[in-house]
Amino acid sequence: MAHKILVIEARYYEGISDALLDGALAALHKSGAEVTKVTVPGALEIPHVISYAHAAQKGAAKAGFDGYVALGCVIRGETTHYDYVCEESARALMDLAVDHQLAIGNGIITVENEDQAWARAKSDKKDKGGFAANAVLKMIKIRNELGA
Predict the structure, then answer these.
(1) Mean pLDDT of the chain, nearest integer
(2) 81 labelled catalytic
(3) Cα(117)–Cα(56) distance, rounded to whole angstroms?
């Protein structure tokens, strides 16, 4: 049975987002997963979508998503906004995963500059999008094995 995965992609840095998405989709399609994609403006909106999707499937007769892939990029700027976006998006994803036993691959990269972002986003480099996709598939497997 193919896993149903929701990919939430923050489009604040569009080119970097495209690279993260390419890596994630390559890994998910290789696994045979069914993919639905949603775009949001920035990293802080990603946990909202996962929460909405999880809430919608609670009462639904039809099974929802098996897992979620969060993709985005936060580059340090001149203000403290970077710190809040990094900390709050990561905290919210962790809260969702732990509180609701959700399989989430966190592919929100947090970097100092655009060069670091490209090095992490490109599939021929660190491929953090592919890493997040593979992480969610592994977490689904572990959750199923443990009967959670």
Answers:
(1) 94
(2) yes
(3) 33
Q: Please state the rounded mean pLDDT for residues 123-145.
A: 96
Task: Dump the DSSP string for 1-44.
Answer: -PPEEEEEEE-SSHHHHHHHHHHHHHHHHHHT-EEEEEEESSGG
CA distances from 31 to 65, 110, 134, 136 (A): 15, 27, 9, 11
With a cut of 80, say whether residue 60 has pLDDT above it.
no
Do 94 and 32 contact (CB within 8 A), yes or no?
Answer: no
Give the DSSP H/E element, type plus range, for residue 107. strand 103-111
Active site residue: 29, 48, 54, 81, which one?
81
Strand order in the sheet with 103-111: 34-40, 4-10, 67-75, 103-111
